[in-house]
Specification:
309 residues; alpha+beta; Aminopeptidase; 2 domains; 12-stranded mixed β-sheet; 8 helices; 12 strands
Length: 309
């Protein structure tokens, strides 16, 4: 049995299905579908030099890698790579081959610093450390049983605040882009990101196949969104929060919490049964909101960093 590494073929269903299947088995806390895999491959910004890879054994996809530059960071030279192998197909060399191909690609594109998320499990961390990566910050995956766990009562909407769904911005999503760009600036992490290209945001984010416009809820003041909770769904029963945030001038009023709980109520009414979200381990305000909502930590990942050169 020989393992080979090659580029993902986004227009070949067996490739996108295999990629999504591996991610679903290795990382069930993040939503992946064949359509989302294809979308990312075709609509990532060209400056990201995105290169999705698969490891294949006897015609079966057993490993995956997402590899790209942090093109929307003000700090050049940041390379991002996330590698996952099917849990029942480890120790075949797939991870090492994917890592080598990913590092060669990023090095050729001018990356000087590589960052990778690694599940906080002994085997995964040992693999990263063997290849020269040092641990950095951590983040949690959280899960909520929407089918059975009770949600807190809906809080009152403050005077002057109106709740609207993203579907109501379908004709002009720019206000949501502007809010997304502002809240991204305060997102904790090892890499700073900026959204400056509206058209690229529309193609990559607004048109993302997992984005659920009816479950994404924004709190608006004077008709403009000032806080929001962005919802992804997989076309089945699973829901995930992609982003929750508030514009700086409106923080401290509970508007992000308001948007998120209304989104969850909508998700449950739509028949979704399982909700996921993620938190940087140092993001105390969001940790408090998610604890209040009933989320429980189900896994932890640790960012690992390697300097090139």
């Amino acid at each position: 049995m020989t393992v080979i590494v090659r580029d993902l073929r986004p227009d070949v269903p067996t490739d996108t299905e295999g990629f999504a299947r591996v991610r679903g088995l290795a990382l069930p806390y993040i939503l992946f579908t064949p359509d989302s895999v294809r979308h990312n491959a075709l609509h990532m910004h060209p400056d990201a030099r995105y290169r999705p890879l698969v490891a294949e054994e006897d015609g079966e996809v057993i490993g995956t890698a997402q590899v790209h530059l942090a093109h929307d960071s003000p700090d050049p030279g940041q390379g991002l790579l996330n590698i996952y192998v099917r849990p029942d197909r480890t120790r075949r060399g797939a991870g090492g081959l994917l890592l080598r191909a990913a590092e060669e690609h990023l090095g050729a594109q001018g990356a000087t610093r590589l960052l990778s998320w690694v599940l906080d499990e002994p085997g995964n961390r040992a693999f990263a450390e063997r290849h020269g990566y040092r641990s950095s910050r951590s983040a949690h995956f959280l899960r909520l049983d929407l089918a059975h766990a009770p949600l807190p009562p809906l809080p009152k909407t403050p005077p002057g605040v109106e709740l609207r769904t993203a579907a109501e911005f379908a004709d002009d999503p720019r206000p949501l882009f502007e809010l997304d760009a502002e809240t991204l600036l305060d997102e904790p992490g090892d890499v700073d990101f900026e959204f400056t290209d509206y058209e690229a945001w529309v193609e990559q984010n607004w048109k993302h196949p997992l984005l659920d416009l009816d479950l994404t809820v924004a709190a608006c003041v004077d008709g403009r969104p000032v806080a929001f909770s962005v919802a992804y769904t997989d076309g089945g029963t699973r829901y995930s929060t992609a982003m929750t945030g508030t514009a700086r001038a409106h923080r401290g009023r509970g508007l992000a919490r308001l948007a998120k709980i209304h989104s969850l109520y909508r998700a449950r009414a739509a028949g979704l049964t399982e909700a996921f979200t993620g938190n940087d381990a140092g993001n105390d305000p969001m940790i408090a909101i998610n604890k209040w909502l009933g989320y429980e930590i189900c896994a932890t990942e640790v960012r690992h960093v390697r300097e090139l050169g």
